[in-house]
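Why does residue order matter? Because the sequence determines the fold. Keep that principle in mind as you read this record.
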Amino acid sequence: MTLQQLIRWRYPDPEERHLVYSQDKVEAGFEDRDSLKIVMGHFRWGYHQFSDRPALYYTFLREPLSHVISHYQYTFDYPEKFRNLPEQYDLLAFAEGPYGYNLQTRFIAGVNDMKGREREIVQRAKEHLVRYVEVLGLVERFDESLLLMKEPLGLKRIYYQTQNEGKARKKFTPSAEELEKLKEINKYDLELYEFGKQLFEAQLNKNRDLAERTRQFRLRNHWFWKLNPAYTRLKVALGLAKS
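Structure:
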């Protein structure tokens, strides 16, 4: 949601953007109108099939155990967003199911199912990260990722306040035994995440001033929202604030 707000500021005209946050929209695809500049949301690699224009992908990976736990908790807040949830399910059952089982690997590879061909699919996901992803971000290193994406995405303003920060009604802390089982269930996501971290570090090596830029950005972002919040929020709404 944080990144989505930045994209809305960058592309204020709804004709310039297409947001995909439901299964219906994933299946419907999008209209490749001339005014369309960006497609953003939760969809698998291959969504560019609805356009004849060259497509650049930007994506985030998240630490897989945190991701599946958060996704599990999210189902209790928004069950209407999940078509095939059983009436009763626990964390491990969710992790084994279609919304949990190595979900990031399947999304990056562009497949619905990978059971029986896991090595092939995780390798395909790695190849997609290398060949097709313009900038790879890590949720756990959001500020650095945002700065890497700022120029390629043409973001003029990147001051933000965190949104959608896991305010689930059902809080769940897995046991040590459950965590071990989760590691086994989602071992391909863990493998892909480690590979992604290597790619992320390679991006940082090409931007040696990023650590200092990140430090300065965090300081400016803090004071941007700290000093006269009403005034700064008005400037943001009017498109007058810059970073």
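The chain is about 50% helix and 10% strand.
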